[in-house]
Amino acid sequence: MEIFLAFGNERVIFIKGRLVEAYKQSKPSEKNTALQNFLGTLRRYAGNSVSDGRIILQYQGIKEILVSNEEGLFETHLTVPAPKNGQRDIATLTLIEDEGITAEKNSIEVSINRISENHPTGIVSDIDDTIVVSHATSLGKKLWLSISKNAYTRRPFPGVSEFYDLLSKNGQNPVFYVSSSDWNLFDLIQDFLDFRTIPKGPILLKDPHVSLKNIWKSGGGNHDHKLEKISQLMSLFPKMKFILIGDSGQHDPELYIRIIEKFPDRVKAVYIRRIKKVDEKRENQLNQYNSEIPVAWVKDSLEAISHAKNFL
To answer: Which of 220, 229, 214, 1 is nearest to 105 (CA)?
Structure first.
C-alpha cells in the first residue's frame, strides 16, 4: 500500500493512495550506473496494480471502506475538523486480506498535513523542465532520462532550491506540485525534492496508468487534469493567492491563462522558464491578459530570484 496524498485545510482532508503487488527495489544512489537505473525503472513500471482491494480507513471515529479501482488507486475526502489541544492528526489504513491479496504490513498510520485555508500565499509548480531537466518536448531525450537516471542523478536547474526557498519563505508558504507525470514516479519525485533540498509539498500527478508498454506517454497527453487540480486547490484554500510556476516547453502559459480567467483575483504572479527561443505572440497572450498580475519569463533561476526579490 502506497500513500500519495494526505492533506487538507481545517475542515476537509484528502487521502489518496494505491495498491500494487509488492516488489523489491533497492534504494538508488548517485553511484548507480545507467544499467542499474534502467533495471530500477523496469521494476517500478512492471509492478501490477491491485484492483478491487478493500482498505479500512479509520480517522477520528470515522470508519470507511475504500476500494481500489482498475489502476489500483483509492481516494477519499472527508469533512472533519482538525483535532484540537495538540492531538495527533493521524489516519489509520488497514488492508482487508482476501484470496490472492496479502499485506506486507497490515496497517499503516498516515499524518495529515493541514494547511490553513486563510494562509495568504501558496505556490503551484510544474515539475518537468521547471525544477528538473526533463527535455519534455523531445521524446527520445525524455525517455532516456526517465530510464537511465534516478532521483539522485536527475539534474535540477541551477538555483531552483534557492528560488523556491525565497518564494516559500523557507517553508512558511505551502508549495503544491502539479504535473502530468504518472503516479509510478511519485517516490522518485519525492526523493528528488528531498535530495536537492527543494521545499516539499503535496504532489498531484496524473491518474491514467502508465506501464512498460506505454512508458513513453508519461508526462504527455491531455493536461486538463492540471486545470482541474489547480481549481481544486483554489477552492480548498479560498483566501490564498497563488504564485504559478511553469515552463514554455508545453502548455503551462496557456493553462495559466485559463486559471486567471477562472480565478481573476487569486493569482499573485506567474513565472515561466523559457525552454526554447522567445515566442513573442505566445508570451504577449499571457503578458497582456491581465496587466495587474506580474509575469516573469526567465531563462534561469537567477533571473527568477532577482525578479522575486523586487516583487515580494
So the answer is: 1
